[in-house]
Amino acid sequence: MFTADISGGKLGIHGVAGLTLLAVGVYSARNATAVAGRYIEARLGKPSLVRETSRFTVAEAVKHPVKMAKRLKSKPQDALEGVVLSPSLEERVRDIAIATRNTRQNNGLYRNILMYGPPGTGKTLFAKKLAVHSGMDYAIMTGGDVAPMGRDGVTAMHKVFDWANTSRRGLLLFVDEADAFLRKRATEKISEDLRATLNAFLYRTGEQSNKFMLVLASNQPEQFDWAINDRIDEIVNFALPGLEERERLVRLYFDKYVLEPATGGRQRLKLAQFDYGKKCSEIAKRTEGMSGREISKLGVAWQAAAYSSEDGVLTEAMIDARVDDAVKQHLQKMDWLRGEEAAKSLTPPPAGVTSSGGKMGFNLPLSETPHAQEVIAPVLEINEKQAPMNLSAEGESDDLAGHNSTAESSGQPPASTDGKMREDSPPKDGTPV
Ligand SMILES: Nc1ncnc2c1ncn2[C@@H]1O[C@H](COP(=O)(O)OP(=O)(O)OP(=O)(O)O)[C@@H](O)[C@H]1O
Ligand SMILES: [Mg+2]
After folding, report:
1. Which of 116, 174, 102 shows the shortest CA–CA distance to 145?
2. Which residues form the signal peptide (predicted)?
3. Per-residue confidence band for 294, with pLDDT thresholds at 50, 70 and 90
4. How far apart are CA 172 and CA 167, in angstroms?
5. Which range marks the domain in which residue 187 is found?
6. Inside any domain, residue 35
7. Atom 17 in ligand 1: which residue has the minimum CA distance?
8. What are 387-405's pLDDT values in tens digits?
9. Cβ neighbours around 224 below 10 Å, total
10. CATH code: domain of residue 87
């Protein structure tokens, strides 16, 4: 109809109205598609920053209907099944698991958790179990994936939280290796893009949520930006296993990788006769300083030894040989770590001090002053003011003392807090917190 008007040289009232309507139509259609697109994207697609998730997409549900139905019906399992922890840490994380489950059932606000400790001590393992136990979905993000995203980081980060907010079951958002991108904005040399992404993360986590729970895991939480510490409600230290825990771990993985396949029937693995219980206790003594992961790998090594032998029989001597290997390799790793620490430490320890607590529970002759205390103590101070309950759970020192003298030095809050800590506190460059 407007062709006629336009060709006529003047745009009639109908023409103007028509054009306006058309423009409005096109504009709103485009907007509506964008909004709908974003909504569908948030609901269906897994954001690129999320590495692994228990949440299923519509496509997956269509592909594996039986699996999905099973999962929907599955009952929450014990949060600590297959996780070996010292008794007091176990009690602590069990409390967290119960509280999280109740929070989900009552649609309350989730508490954010920081788990820190040496590699291979069960942080990721526990986080996944916690999600399953509480009936939540989990999503795993890795801190190291953020920096390479460059300027797309901000959008990607918002996508993660848009997606998290559409979760019906509640989402446990697990940020592994969190220190890789949650670094101090003020003091560390981080790129503008990373700083912007961190700001987006802070913006989206400023308020406690009833949709997602943040679980951060780190080997170096002392590198966190102050604003991150401020968002943490519970700090849990996963220390290296002590003798008792090592024995439980050795038994667990001996059962899993050796006994079960040996008794399972169809497998080729056979086990020679010897006192398994005694052997496990002996191995626990020999594996001092090893992590849960190292011990689980030992289990796999025994299994591999049996499978690669001609008759498929696992003998005591073969088990011992693998333990010897593992111990040697562990010592080598500790040597490297020691070298690294010594290189970092510019000032030698005071005279008379031959050994002091190193970072993350390793006993090293030369070490830096553990900065973790400086950062964590003020967090606890804040938490104490807000929720005195949290601190009562910090009674880990007793169980850790026997196993790992350094775990406390890197993780336990000092009895008194001095002014020095505040130097580290809020960013002084005016960056938003
Ligand atoms: N406390 C534990 N109880 C039982 N198994 C454990 C424990 N700790 C570690 N393991 C074994 O080691 C594997 C790796 O552990 P996990 O991924 O939880 O370590 P992590 O603490 O997250 O380490 P990282 O800091 O390197 O990410 C687990 O899958 C499990 O087989
Ligand atoms: Mg991990």
Report:
1. 174
2. none
3. very high
4. 10
5. 52-237
6. no
7. 124
8. 444 433 333 333 333 334 3
9. 25
10. 3.40.50.300
Residue nearest to atom 27 of ligand 1 (CA): 119
268 and 224, same domain (yes or no): no
Closest CA to 412 of 404, 96, 128: 404
- The pLDDT tens digits of the residues spanning 341-380 come to 888 775 554 444 433 334 444 444 333 333 333 334 444 4
Which residues does a 6 A CB cutoff place in the pocket of ligand 1? 82-85, 119-125, 176, 217, 219, 238, 249, 292-293, 296
Residues whose Cβ atom is located within 5 A of ion ligand 2: 123-124, 176
Look at residue 168 and tell me whether its pLDDT is greater than 90.
Answer: no
The model's confidence at residue 412, banded by pLDDT at 50, 70 and 90, is very low
Separation of 121 CA from ligand 2 center, angstroms?
Answer: 8
Residue 421 lies in a domain: no
Has residue 403 been placed in a domain? no
Q: Are 206 and 247 in contact (CB under 8 A)?
A: no
Q: Which two tokens stand for residue 196?
A: 């912007």
R_g (Cα) of the chain, nearest Å:
27
- pLDDT tens column, 123-164: 989 988 888 888 888 889 998 998 898 899 999 999 999 999
The closest ligand to the CA of 248 turns out to be 1
- Amino acid of residue 40: I
Q: Hey, what amino acid is at 327?
A: V
